[in-house]
């Protein structure tokens, strides 16, 4: 009975989301972001830009895992692919928008290869494959150190922003422009036939096949879409940091991404936004505590600890994630 109630609530939440006009939501989000870039101090604006970059990857990952049921532990490596592609492009051509598009295309191609293999795997085998990708991709930078400059990484050449805005404002506009376009595209995509196919495959592959849904094609396409989002996120991170290195995309990043979307709410784009905020907020708190204690090792362990504690608390209080919470209210007269 509890499982049936949870599924009923999930369907009701999706119907409520479907009633929202995505264009109005994106327009309102753009207005809020622009206003915040003029109100916040530079460091907070930088953090706002980082949330936008994270939103690209968490939105794609929550669609892959929450709507299609594929578990990925390799999205940090896909972000690294996009970041290094943009760095190599910028250092040669210094054309940002085409470079971001190239980064998305290259990461999408990598995601297609992984997706073809992932379509044949289930459960822990799929997790193992994507985990291997997360381990292998950073090691490539050390193998081809003449191209990727090994552990030192690559700088990213960028033209200065217009004189009318600060660097942080420009970064926030670029990152949130990509994030809002990503959310809009995913919202429209998941409302159509492709979204229905993904949910059907997630719920029951046998029933989906009987209904005429190509399970393998749906799973590959879901991975490709999610990889494209990760590639965009990686390129935006390269813009923010103005450099890329293997240390910026460790294995723990993939774990944090997965925990963030679970805490936020699987299958919900609003949950992806909550997860993106947590990806910036919790490590920032851990950094402040680590600095106060004078220990970098403590800082790294605290970030993982915070995510673990929040994950346990949220799963006990709201199994559907923070996005599933509804604020109770009483009508007048009761």
Helix content: over 70%
Strand fraction equals under 5%
Largest sheet: 2 strands, antiparallel
Termini, distance in Å?
29 Å
Q: Please trace the helix and strand order, writing H or E for each element.
A: HHHHHHHEHHHHEHHH
Q: Describe the global form.
A: globular
Provide the spatial order of strands within the biggest beta sheet: 1-2
Give the structural class. Answer: mainly alpha
Alpha plus pi helix count: 14
Estimated radius of gyration: 20 Å
Domain count: 1
Write down the overall mean pLDDT.
87
Instruction: Report the strand count.
Output: 2
Uncertain runs with pLDDT below 50, 5 residues or more?
A: 1-5, 329-334
What keywords describe this structure?
mainly alpha; 14 helices; two-stranded antiparallel ribbon; 334 residues; disordered C terminus
């Amino acid at each position: 009975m509890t499982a049936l109630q949870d599924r009923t609530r999930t369907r009701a939440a999706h119907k409520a989301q479907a009633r929202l006009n995505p264009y109005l939501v994106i327009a309102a989000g753009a207005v809020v972001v622009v206003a915040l870039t003029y109100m916040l101090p530079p460091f907070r604006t930088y953090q706002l830009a980082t949330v936008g970059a994270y939103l690209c990857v968490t939105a794609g990952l929550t669609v892959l895992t929450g709507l299609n049921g594929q578990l990925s532990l390799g999205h940090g490596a896909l972000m690294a692919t996009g970041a290094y592609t943009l760095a190599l492009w910028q250092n040669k051509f210094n054309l940002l928008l085409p470079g971001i598009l190239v980064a998305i295309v290259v990461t999408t191609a990598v995601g297609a290869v992984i997706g073809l293999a992932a379509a044949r795997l289930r459960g822990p085998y799929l997790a193992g494959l994507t985990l291997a990708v997360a381990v292998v991709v950073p090691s490539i930078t050390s193998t081809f150190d003449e191209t990727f400059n090994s552990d030192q990484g690559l700088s990213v050449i960028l033209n200065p922003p217009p004189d009318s805005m600060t660097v942080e404002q420009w970064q926030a506009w670029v990152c949130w422009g990509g994030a809002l376009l990503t959310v809009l595209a995913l919202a429209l995509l998941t409302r159509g036939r492709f979204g229905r196919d993904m949910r059907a495959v997630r719920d029951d592959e046998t029933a989906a096949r009987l209904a005429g849904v190509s399970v393998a094609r749906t799973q590959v396409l879901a991975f490709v879409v999610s990889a494209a989002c990760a590639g965009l996120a990686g390129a935006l991170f390269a813009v923010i940091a103005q450099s890329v290195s293997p240390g910026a995309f460790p294995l723990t990043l993939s774990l944090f991404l997965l925990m963030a979307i679970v805490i936020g709410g699987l299958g919900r784009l609003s949950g992806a936004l909550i997860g993106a905020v947590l990806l910036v907020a919790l490590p920032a708190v851990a950094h402040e505590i680590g600095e106060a204690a004078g220990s970098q090792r403590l800082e790294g362990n605290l970030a993982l600890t915070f995510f673990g504690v929040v994950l346990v608390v949220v799963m006990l209080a709201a199994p559907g994630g923070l996005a599933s919470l509804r604020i109770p209210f009483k009508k007048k007269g009761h």
